[in-house]
Design goal:
- The protein is globular and about 60 Å long.
- The protein has a 7-stranded mixed β-sheet, covered by helices on one side.
- The two termini are 29 Å apart.
- α5 packs across α6.
- With 282 residues, the chain is α/β, with parallel strands linked by helices.
- The protein has 10 helices and 10 strands.
- This is Chemotaxis protein methyltransferase.
- InterPro entries: Bact_Chemotaxis_MeTrfase, Chemotaxis_MeTrfase_CheR, CheR_C, CheR_MeTrfase, CheR_N, CheR_N_sf, SAM-dependent_MTases_sf.
- GO terms for molecular function: methyltransferase activity.
- Its EC number is 2.1.1.80.
């Protein structure tokens, strides 16, 4: 998951009243409690725009009434829909490419022929997970067992990820040899789309995970990509999430964060080895 603002519809497009400042404060509390994401005051227009369609679809006249619907004791299914709308999932294939270069050129040679597991911990619609899978499929020797796990808080984007079908414009950063080997060009109704090859899709497993809740039992990983998500947490939530995720690493495993993020000041058994890449001490 990578929360970030996108162009929002205006509530006036749906005949709704404006979200009051007091209502926004209550949404701030709810969203932070459910997702760990702090919505700054400048995000009020974004929030109201994203929720406007749900208010219209449910014939709800104002944001206070909708808040009661998705709050404690309310409609759990609608609450998940609201979370899906609020948590933006901006991503693309091979975003911040030096991280994938490091996996290919540094991490994988160190691992040799042992089974390899990598977790994409805020995978959004799956581009990061499939990018990792392409690198592993290309570089690991025949017979080496490997898998990629992708997780996100949004059930909507996980459904997209499992399908592995993307607009062709998302292909711009995929290396040409990977594009030819691991992607199929859509035809007919799917013209203008690319589909991740079935063999690669079968090596990637997607599951819902809320990073601020206790993590499910997921085994241990050689690397975890936790990119472009902790920047939206406050310091205490960031510390808890990083320590919980780091606990899933094998000794010597890597934690990779986004280039706009830092682990400075977070107590853990991690040491920096490359820009925004940390290794778990043995």
């Amino acid at each position: 998951m990578s929360p970030a603002p996108v162009e929002a519809l205006s509530p006036h497009d749906f005949g709704l009243v404006q979200m009051a400042d007091a209502e926004f404060l209550l949404y701030q509390v709810l969203v932070e409690r459910l997702t760990g994401i702090h919505l700054a005051p400048i995000k009020k227009a974004m929030l109201s725009g994203r929720l406007a369609k749900r208010l219209r679809d449910r014939s709800i006249a104002n944001y206070g009434e909708y808040l009661r619907l998705i709050g404690d004791g309310g409609d759990a299914e609608e609450r998940q829909l609201a979370i899906d709308l609020i948590t933006t999932n901006e991503t693309y294939f091979f975003r911040e490419p030096k991280h994938f270069d490091a996996v290919r050129d540094v991490l994988l040679p160190q691992l040799g022929r042992q089974p390899v597991r990598i977790w994409s911990a805020a995978c959004a619609s799956g581009e990061e997970s499939y990018s990792l899978a392409m690198v592993l499929a290309d570089r690991l020797e025949q017979g080496v067992v490997w898998e990629v796990i992708g997780s996100d808080i949004s059930s909507r984007v996980l459904s997209m990820a499992r399908r592995g079908l993307y607009p062709m414009e998302r292909a711009h950063h995929i290396p040409p040899e990977y594009l030819k080997r691991f992607c199929l060009r859509g035809t007919g109704d799917y013209m203008g789309s690319l589909l991740i090859d079935k063999g690669l899709r079968q090596k990637v497993r997607f599951m819902p995970v809320n990073l601020i809740a206790p993590l499910p039992e997921m085994g241990r990983y050689d690397a975890v990509f936790l990119r472009n998500v902790i920047i939206y947490f406050d310091a205490e939530t960031k510390r808890r999430v990083v320590n919980a995720v780091a606990a899933t690493l094998k000794p010597g495993g890597w934690l990779v964060v986004g280039h706009s993020e830092s682990l400075i000041g977070i107590p853990s058994d991690l040491e920096p080895i490359l820009p925004t890449i940390y290794r778990k001490r043995a």
